[in-house]
Amino acid sequence: MWKRAPVILGITSLLLACGGAPGSHSRNALDSGAHYAAAQKWAEAGDAVEALRSLEASFEGGLSSPMGVVTDERLSSLVADPLTRPSVRELLSRYVRESEAMLVTAKEPGDQIIVEGVIVDELSGAPISGAVVELVHTDRNGKYFSEDGTWNPRLFGYLKTADDGTFRVTTIKPGGYEDEEGVDVPTHIHFSIEATGYRAYGSEFLFDDDPMLIADALHQAGLERLRVAKRQAGSGVPAYLVTIPLQPLTN
Asked: Beta strands 177-178 and 166-172: pairing type?
């Protein structure tokens, strides 16, 4: 089972390592939009430290859509750079607000898909609002990241379920890959979910129209142990629905 990987270098550590401190300038002088605009300018100027400072100030100020960072071309260097990407993920994990997000830019190669998830109580089936969802998946070539080193995924999302327990993302269909034993792995998206009053749950969901699942009886037999996103009827961008139950904590 996939588990959430630790952040390589937190934003505070990154700032201190680069000679600055998060409190070295006032974060109250500007509103969240102005801080966000400053982050864009710093990123374009090649100053990742100031860009991350401004982003954090923007998020603290109540920016409504932090996940917009991953599709903002003016901030693309922060996600593309393996040194600053973990800090972006750390910030997004701390300031989760959206129930809907785009995980890729228009330039990302691959076939676009829409995935809607519903988080429910395993016992009652009731939707769980406010659950924090982390998603991670490969690019179309089956790569999580291209550089050598520690786990540092490039395509990711952080969401909070709406009142009806749902989240919705637009992304690209992940590519498959071979595991360490040379066995082909079905297309999947990793998830990690936390909600007050429930056990944390980390695993992955597959896609019911994956040719590997359709052709391989062994994979079909294992579907009961994994969540499966089901293709929805309709034309246009392929859409999938996955339901994920959480176990309530017991006293």
From this structure: unpaired
Specify the amino acid at residue 140.
R
Contact 245, 121 (CB under 8 A): yes
Tokens 């300031």: give the residue. Answer: 95
pTM of the model: 0.85
Q: Which residues contact 20 (CB under 8 A, 6 or more apart)?
A: 49, 50, 53
Query: How do the domains of the chain map onto residue ranges?
Result: 1-95, 98-251
- Alpha carbons 205 and 190: distance in angstroms, whole number: 7
Helix or strand run (H / E) with residue 248: none
Structure tokens, 56:
């954090």
Residue 199 corresponds to which tokens in the numbers above?
């056990």
Pairing state between β 227-231 and 201-207: parallel
Rounded-to-integer distance, Cα 52 and Cα 84, Å: 9
- 98-251 CATH fold: Protocatechuate 3,4-Dioxygenase, subunit A (2.60.130)
Number of Cβ within 10 Å of residue 64's Cβ equals: 8
Q: What is the pLDDT of residues 8-52, one digit of tens each?
A: 344 444 444 444 444 444 444 359 999 999 999 999 999 999 999
Q: Cα separation of 152 and 159, whole Å?
A: 19
DSSP secondary structure string, 80-94? HSTTTHHHHHHHHHH
Q: Could you give phi then psi for residue 223, rounded to 5 degrees?
A: -65, -30
The span from the CA of 198 to the CA of 50, in Å, is: 37
